[in-house]
């Protein structure tokens, strides 16, 4: 699987811990999701309705060698925030080409299938799909 180095490191982190620790790690990622920059308002962001909790994303690909990703999710949605944070930490600042090459099911390598519902995992897939769609436009 071809992943940008930051995302590969995250996948390795999840692979190195037990199932119970995976949930704790996901919670830690949820707390690390950065706030939106002042110039970006949630109302101007794209909703991702496939997520079980409200999630909004923004893809700035003006510089195709350094794509900027922003996510907004409420604090009471730690799973959704955790997934958004994983994508932010793993893909923000990467090239459009590197992001487009990430397999759509890379999240299966996180090993969360036994801990998180398939519906929630599809939310992460939907986030990546929408990011890729923006990059192809």
UniProtKB/TrEMBL annotation:
Superkingdom, according to UniProt? Bacteria
Q: Which SUPFAM superfamilies match?
A: SufE/NifU (SSF82649)
Which stretches make up the Fe-S metabolism associated domain?
Answer: 12-133
> Gene3D superfamilies, alphabetically?
3.90.1010.10
Task: Tell me which InterPro entries the record gives.
Answer: Fe-S_metab-assoc_dom
Which Pfam families does this chain map to? SufE
Family membership noted in the UniProt record: Belongs to the SufE family.
What protein does this entry describe? SufE family protein
Which organism is this protein's natural source? Rhodococcus gannanensis
